[in-house]
């Protein structure tokens, strides 16, 4: 029986109104490096981000991205511009806050999100979600981020729950689903339209049906 539920944040409970490609381009422009638009793409950003999951900010991410290029831009300015762009573009998935509140009447509910402390904290401030969960964990404050088992161990400790009594709900097949499954948690894969669930997922749900369908899914795990 499931007694606790952990959630991912980005692209699970909240999504940007604009594409992340556009948000990165906007940040490069606002941060003083418009000439890198196109040269620094989303794939390069994700690779650099993965190398700095436990960082306090995105400054080392942009330092890595700038290193191959002869530009005057300051990685601090770029990190600030990207944080502002991503944060202010975020909107909750329909019914997400109400879903979490309702689940807390039955389960312990936590958040485990990958990213720098400043960036993810800014999102929670903007959404007003610091008090939405029983326990909140940001990879920048942890020894490792998802999919590392240590990240899920921190969540389980905060939830005061065993792995087999805990479900993790997230959109990323590697970080959220394979990582949680390897740590012994049950898993619910949140899918974009037309998406396919990871083989490790115990269940899946369309993102736009998350609030409507997740309670019954949890009861069936």
Automatic annotation (TrEMBL):
EC class name: hydrolase
GO biological process: small molecule metabolic process
Pfam families (alphabetical): Hydrolase
Domain of life: Archaea
Entry cofactors: Mg(2+)
Key words of the record: Hydrolase, Magnesium, Metal-binding
GO molecular function: hydrolase activity; metal ion binding
EC number of this enzyme: 3.1.3.-
Gene3D superfamilies assigned to the protein according to its UniProt record, in alphabetical order: HAD superfamily/HAD-like, Haloacid dehalogenase hydrolase-like domain
Stated family: Belongs to the HAD-like hydrolase superfamily.
PANTHER family in UniProt: GLYCERALDEHYDE 3-PHOSPHATE PHOSPHATASE, N-ACYLNEURAMINATE-9-PHOSPHATASE
Record-given protein name: HAD family hydrolase
Lineage: Archaea, Methanobacteriati, Methanobacteriota, Stenosarchaea group, Halobacteria
